[in-house]
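Q: I'm writing up a methods section and want to include an example of the input and output format. Could you take the sequence below and give the corresponding predicted structure tokens, formatted cleanly so I can copy it straight into the document?
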Amino acid sequence: MAQARVLLSACIGIIMSLDAFGAGAEPSGPEKVQAALETWLAERAPLEKVTGIAAYVSLGDPGPAIEAFAGTTGRSPSDRPVSQDTLFQMGSTSKSFTAAVILRLEAAGKLSLDDTLGRWLPEYPAWQDVSIRRLLNMTSGIPNYSETEAMSRLWVEHPQRVLSADELVRIAYPTSSNKLPTTTGYHYSNTNYILASMIAEKASGRTFQDLVHELVIEPFGLHSTFYESGTYPEAVVRRLAHGYFENPACTDYQPKDCTASWNLPLVGRDVRAMSSSWTQAAGGAISNARDVTRWMRAVFAGRVVPAKQQGEWQRMISTRTGEPLLGLTAEDPRGFSLGLARAILGPPGGNWFYEGETLGYRTLYVWFAEDDLLITVQTNSQPADGMDRLHDAVMAIYEAVKPPTSP
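A: Here is the clean output for your methods example:
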């Protein structure tokens, strides 16, 4: 097993020493979390092509917390162990940043969730009646640029190219030669969040990058979180784990009988040095598990936006029907709000969660509200379809730290 270590954060002055436990003593919470990570990595590394995993377990607000790591940052013998300094791409967990920016601008009177694209972005007349709300809750019907052949060709042939927000949107915009399928109800589309960021820039007169730093990263003390619309500084890239694309599946816009994915030339590639400008406001942030947990704690505690916007933030639609969803049921177990998701995740019941995935990274958090637990895990691959079991790591950690049930 690759080198692994565990830290216990003394967030409220609680300090525990692993050395205090004798060989025959009941394992501590940190020891159980460490064992859960090592077991998951040993079982899943050959299948998911990962080399390391990081976890942060928030046992309350502001603390205490358990921080644990297993494995290494890459496949080379010289790659460092995963540590507190290691960063991962957040993927779509950072869609919450975009939602926060929009909601803060609404609270400041700069825009409304019911404003349309026609008001803010008239250069896209085909989508003029779509509201900001429908962008953020994925009911716009707008196609997803990141599932197109054009996007795959850029990844494969021009991995360092820095793309603008407008270039990304134009990949999905309907023309005489570009007729991607439109949808009704819920349909996950990264194009929605790129458009939302463009509206935020128009409404505020600021770049989206500046808005993320001023409204999210700086006020909430996210010292290991970074957002760039283009290329990241070398100092940030050096801290980033290597990320591996290992998914040969065909994309959503390929024929049903597809036998070779447009992305096939990417399989096996380390994407760490690729430009992340292809994702931007749809999931382009880089962070560590500690900061992701700190941010999501602030979100669910209502510390980011006023109460009115908080209610809008967590107002769900059904991912099955696209209609408003007041609560989860066995028949309708998954909901989506504004960059947040909620689902019945086995025995713990309905919980807020999100798994963000980029070409070589995954970040997953789950907020177990009834137990006041928030668990974040991060790892370094996009595995083949059906192979992603990162949720198993969260559930193993949950079983290790959940409060005892009352008799």
